[in-house]
Amino acid sequence: MKSEILYPGAFPMVRVELAAGEHIKAESGAMVGSSPTVDVESKMEGGFLGALSRKLLTGEKFFFQTLRASRGPGEVLLAPTVPGEVVILELDGVNEYMVQKDGFLAGAEGINIESKMQSLSRGLLGGEGFFILKIGGKGMLAMNSFGAIHKIELRPDQEYIVDNSHLVAWSATTSYNIEKAASGWVASFTSGEGLVCRFRGPGIVYIQSRNPGGFGSWIRQFIPVSE
């Protein structure tokens, strides 16, 4: 299996070359095109009950696509829904990542995807819903962001604060707590800032340069209000 990013920047695609019999997992709807030797299957990662819980509690799509080169070698083209960058990691079977639910694009057949329920307070206040994805195993992992993606490498005990809406992924071994962005609830609301994650290293954090919720609010001001 080989993968590469085409047209890097705001509107990338990922090309994956599959040997006969190989397959990849991809976010539902991510496929742009493929060779005729590739079959598309839908799969509920993590089992039916886990997938159904994610659907009911977060509203997210709980089917992943399995793209399999069943009838010979072929290629697949993938792209995220929103404009932004794509980063490809090679997982080594040891390091795992926590990925927010919109950050996963695709992964090799050797990776494992597990939905993890956050604590109630984190799920209600964290801005990423009750479920996040824990991804490990070996092979390619492609993640996408809204806007540019930025990598932060934390030294042991180094702290870094990130607005929740700008999170993409972080090392599973990196601890974090959710806090108010400003001192006091009133200050948080009046400053326009909400909640943040305080990470403590060692580990890696990936963030995105744009806030999906903020962009949606900006768009709404141009939508005529029906009377």
TrEMBL record:
Taxonomic source organism: Nitrospira lenta
Listed InterPro entries: AIM24, AIM24_sf, Trp_RNA-bd_attenuator-like_dom
Protein name: TIGR00266 family protein
Domain of life: Bacteria
Gene3D superfamilies: Mitochondrial biogenesis AIM24
